[in-house]
Design a protein that fits this description.
308 residues; mainly beta; 5-stranded antiparallel sheet
Length: 308
């Protein structure tokens, strides 16, 4: 009797029968990787609070509230236009961003749209901040200036990228993102944060590669692939099985020390097998192979890279 099911990439329990498609190669052959790549900082997700109110003119206004809790580092924002955004407005805005002209994005140190009298200063996402190094005569905002750029995610969706290095905490680390039409629901925004490090220029250059990451997500020296749920290290020479018509035959012998990416598993007649992709399997036996799962934060970063 053969049983099948589905297993989410973040679901690591092995009590449910499942097989996932392989993505990329399964065998892990760690090659020499530059130390800088292994030392690449990783961001964390930041929760955003959508706050609304009425301004002094009686108009509805809204902003995203970002609480860094007195931390310093590089704040990265990824903004998707929703279906509510007028098409002509979107075209104009994207054209402006591509030319790196001001498009009305500001990081404010108080809820200025609602309480304008309390505004103490802001950081404008108007041009990539290096422009100010080249042209020191340009007028800067009170604190600093971040970058803006545009990109396309792996699903083909276009987004606006905003980023800024905050070298000191203002307003106890509570900031507000101000931008046109925020109150109309025209934006879907995600925030990420690199603590204690200035990676503003590096993140800017990765907008059309790994944004908001700086590199592929690595587990040890190897890349952690999309849909990968674990890895297998051979403890002794082990049969490498290929499935044909619901039965297994030995394709070759895996050598002690070899590693493989695991994308799921299958149960046949009450016996479990790790799925390594391409219709190949390894018996679930702790004496034959050691199974390990990646940290949840790394799984989350892979999801960000491929799904957000």
């Amino acid at each position: 009797m053969k049983r099948f099911g589905l297993l989410g990439a973040a679901t690591l329990a092995l009590g449910i029968s499942a097989v996932l498609p392989a993505e990329g190669g399964s065998i892990l052959e760690p090659k020499r990787i530059e130390a800088a790549a292994l030392a690449t900082p990783l961001p964390v997700d930041l929760p955003l609070e959508y706050v609304s109110g009425v301004d002094e003119y009686g108009s509805k206004v809204s902003q995203y509230k970002i609480d860094l809790g007195n931390r310093t580092g590089t704040l990265v924002l990824k903004m998707y236009m929703t279906e509510k955004y007028p098409k002509n407005g979107a075209d104009t805005l994207y054209a402006d961003v591509k030319k790196k002209r001001a498009s009305g994005f500001f990081l404010v140190d108080s809820n200025s749209s609602i309480n304008s009298d309390n505004a103490k200063g802001l950081a404008a996402f108007d041009r990539y901040s290096a422009i100010y190094d080249i042209n020191p005569g340009f007028s800067r905002p009170k604190y600093t200036s971040g970058f803006q750029n545009v990109g396309v995610n792996k699903k083909g969706e276009r987004f606006i990228a905003l980023g800024i290095y905050l070298d000191k905490s203002v307003n106890s680390g509570v900031y507000y993102l101000e931008t046109p039409n925020m109150a109309s629901g025209h934006w879907n925004t995600k925030a990420y944060f690199y603590e204690n490090v200035n990676v503003e220029k590096r993140v800017f250059s990765e907008v059309n590669r790994y944004f908001p990451l700086l590199d592929k997500v690595r587990w040890g020296v190897a890349e952690l692939k999309h849909n990968q749920i674990g890895r297998l290290t051979m403890l002794q020479n082990t049969p490498f099985l290929m499935e044909e018509y619901g039965k297994f035959k030995v394709a070759r012998t895996l050598k002690k020390g070899e590693q493989y990416r695991i994308y799921g598993y299958k149960e046949i007649s009450g016996k479990g097998y790790y799925a390594v992709g391409g219709g190949h399997f390894v018996e679930m036996n702790s004496k034959l192979a050691k199974y390990e799962t990646p940290a949840k934060n790394k799984m989350r970063l892979v999801k960000i890279l491929h799904e957000e």
